[in-house]
Amino acid sequence: MNDFRYDPIKPADVPLSRPTYQSATEPPPPPHWRALPWMWMSLTALILLALTVVFLLPRWIDSDWRAAENDSSSASAQPSAEEPPAAAEESVVPQDDARQTAARREAQTLLTRLMALQQELEQVAVTYWAPTPYEQARALIAAGDHHYRQRDFVAALEQYQQAAATLTGIADSRPEHLQQALQAGRAALEAGDAEAAAQHFERALLMDPGNAEALQAKARLEQLPAVLAALEKAADLEHAGDLAAALAAFEDALALDPHSSTARQGQERLRQMVADQRYQDALDRGFAALQGGDDAGARQAFREALSTRPDDEVARSGLAQAEERAARRRIVATLERARTLEQQENWAEAAEVYEGLYRDDASLVDARVGQMRAATRARLDQEMEQLLADPLRLGSDAVLAEGRELLADARAIAQPGPRLSGQIAALDEALQHAATPVSVTLRSDNRTHVTVLRVADLGTVQSTELSLRPGRYVATGSRSGYRDVRVEFEVPLGSAHDMVVTVICDEPIGR
To answer: In what order do the strands lie in the sheet with 438-443?
Structure first.
């Protein structure tokens, strides 16, 4: 065995972690969400510490570890004679030493992660919102540092792992702490406590510098005095019973701060109250109008009430009553108009009015009976007017018979009006004239063959007398070598003079 030995190198007392504050019991500095100069100092110190752990500490510890390994190697360099040859080939590093070596390397890696976690948490002011667990994590790191300096790397690794779990838990709990701060800020803002709201939202910004709600809270805090004034005004107006003005005040507050739940709830409540008041007012006006016989006003009021409460049975019932009364009044007025038209013997228009009523409501017996009566008289009036407009049609036996039948129907009317009475007299006179023949002289040249259609074939005549009833007639003439002629003539009613009709073919063919 070699008697030369290295002097053991004592581990340097290098602090592997640094305290942010001296004790967890010391109050953290007040938060300020605009500037944190101490963060830059902490960041610089952490960087220097990381360089020390990564580059210097491994060299100090490795040199001491290698000295111990050399002593162990010298002691075991000459194997015992009793040992089998295979024993000399066993590892010169005991199993516990290998475990310590692995633990040392893992501890160094974990320590780098711990410093990163500390840096991340200190950048979001962890000592302000989670001081106790953070101090516990620092204590675990300090204990790990102590074990590391004592070269108990396994124990150091355990402490570091516990510290890592604690710091990870703190980091994972940041969203919950953030939401608690935001919720507290909202509550303080709604309560009108500007100072407390500012503190809570500043705390939120320390945990999340870009938080939109917390940043927006600054503008809300600036409008808070005006919002509180508008809310107070709204409350006073509501207490006084001026609901419309109170609603306007709540809407003013909401315009100043669209995120104010107090203003929004007040607006919704007052809107409902105003709607309820409008509904009740409309309902009262509707029943008053109904009682006063103002159907149109009642319908308008009940419809206004239904615009506020579409499914309200009271308003629906009131509207139904108003519409039913209006319908009855309308029916009565329309029936009266139809009867007036009958009195005026305007039967066609009266029939149309009755028809419209019956079409709208088939249960109206008066409308149905009136329609049938007016339609019958309208047809009679039309037929009589047609005959009187063209009495020469009575020259036909069939038309003459129809005219006599029509006159009988008209005379059967119990109480004929002036119009019908005049029609009866005019038709009776026309029928009498239509039945009285008139003397008609037909002249020719004794060479033309003359025929009076539907009356007689006269042959060739020089002159002849015919007795014809009033009407329309056609006489034709034909002669060999000459063009045929056709003569239409009318025999008027009540003619007092003989008529002369000439039928002569005097135009040779071929000229």
So the answer is: 463-468, 438-443, 499-502
The pLDDT score that the predictor gives to residue 223 is 67
Fold of 222-343: 1.25.40
Q: Return contacts of 466-469, CB within 8 angstroms, 24+ apart.
A: 466/439, 466/440, 466/441, 466/442, 467/437, 467/438, 467/439, 467/440, 468/437, 468/438, 468/440, 469/395, 469/434, 469/435, 469/436, 469/437, 469/438
DSSP β-bridge partners for residue 411:
none
Exposure of 176 in the CB half-sphere (CA atoms within 13 A):
6
Reference 287, options 327, 311, 320; nearest CA is 320
Instruction: Compute the distance between CA of residue 214 and CA of residue 395 in angstroms, rounded to an integer.
Output: 108
Does the structure show a pLDDT above 80 at 77? no
> 159: which 2 tokens?
């402490």
Sheet holding 485-491, edge to edge: 456-460, 449-452, 471-478, 485-491
b/e 398-416 (16+ beta carbons within 10 angstroms → b): ebbeebeebbeebeeeeeb
Encoding tokens for residue 511? 């000229």
Ordered by start, the domain boundaries in the chain are 37-70+96-207, 222-343, 383-434, 438-502
Can you spell out the DSSP letters for 400-435?
HHHHHHHHHHHHT-SS--HHHHHHHHHHHHHHHHHT
Cβ–Cβ contacts within 10 Å for residue 97, how many? Answer: 15
* Cβ atoms of 273 and 243 closer than 8 Å: yes
Are the folds of 222-343 and 438-502 the same?
no
Higher confidence at residue 486 or residue 436? Answer: 486
438-502: CATH topology:
Immunoglobulin-like (2.60.40)
Direct distance between the N- and C-terminal alpha carbons of the chain, in angstroms, rounded to an integer:
171
Task: Please state whether the predicted TM-score (pTM) of the whole model is above 0.70.
Answer: no
**Which among 421, 434, 425, 464 has a CA at the least distance from the CA of 446?**
464
Residue for token digits 């066993």? Answer: 90
CB-CB neighbours of 332 under 10 Å:
11
Helix (H, G, I), strand (E, B) or coil at 450: strand
Closest CA to 118 of 181, 188, 52, 46: 46
Q: What is the pLDDT of residues 197-249, one digit of tens each?
A: 777 877 887 788 878 777 777 767 766 677 777 777 878 887 887 888 888 88
Q: What's the pLDDT tens digit per position in 392-411?
A: 888 888 888 999 999 899 99
pLDDT digits (tens, 9 = 90+) for 276-303: 888 888 989 998 988 888 888 888 888 9
